[in-house]
Write a structure and sequence with these properties.
The chain is α+β, with helices and mostly antiparallel strands and about 210 residues long. It is built from 5 helices and 9 strands, in the order αββαβαβαβββββα. Strands 1, 2, 3, 4, 5, 6 and 9 form a 7-stranded mixed β-sheet that branches.
Length: about 210
């Protein structure tokens, strides 16, 4: 009897514990898909594309007084820690005529970090609204054609987020005017999706050997 107990403790129990934690990592390691396919940026003017990129997608709007401060929050809390990862980008969708605002913003952001993965595209209010609706969220653009919220879109143009957020239930986007939202929630979710793709890449590489 004693031998059986010893064997269980030495061999079976560690295996059970390992399987428990491995299962937890697997479940934790995928960020839920909230929208199956976001539209590509074809209707907007610019070189950026969503397909094949992990994208942080934003809508600064026209002449929005909080646009720069929100961009700075995003730059410091999300872009700066992750911009060196392959296929990571930030895409800002703005109304036509905001080129001067973007030039000033790029100059200021560029003093803090390499902004080579920031992309800007432009469109009419109608085109921006139509594109925004393809996200299929419970949020809306304001009168300036903008929003303080940004969104995580994966390489297959799927919107990622939280289905069971403690505060809002389904969480489609992250509020750039809230450092806490970026720091405590969005940063974790970006880490998850980057880890998800790194794991998939390792599996593919292992499969070729």
């Amino acid at each position: 009897m004693k031998k059986t107990v010893v064997l269980v403790v030495l061999f079976v129990l560690p295996l059970v514990v390992y399987m428990f934690f491995a299962s937890g990592v697997t479940n934790f390691g995928r960020l839920p898909v909230l929208t199956e396919q976001v539209s590509e940026l074809d209707s907007l003017r610019g070189d950026a594309r969503l397909e094949g990129k992990i994208t942080i997608l934003g809508f600064p709007g026209r002449d929005n007084p909080s646009g720069k401060s929100n961009a700075f929050n995003l730059n410091q809390k999300i872009y700066k820690p992750f911009y060196e990862f392959t296929d990571f980008q930030v895409v800002m969708v703005l109304p036509e005529g905001q080129e001067e605002f973007v030039a000033d913003l790029k100059k200021e952001l560029g003093t803090l970090v390499d902004i080579g993965q920031w992309e800007f595209v432009y469109g009419t209010p109608e085109d921006i609204e139509k594109f925004f609706q393809s996200l299929q969220t419970d949020l809306q653009l304001d009168a300036s054609g903008g929003s303080s919220y940004v969104f995580i879109v994966d390489k297959e143009r799927k919107l990622r987020g939280r289905k069971t957020d403690d505060d809002v239930g389904t969480k489609y986007g992250f509020n750039t005017s809230s450092v806490a939202d970026l720091n405590n929630k969005m940063k974790d979710d970006v880490k998850i999706i980057l880890a998800e793709y790194r794991l998939a890449l390792k599996k593919n590489q292992a499969g070729r050997k």
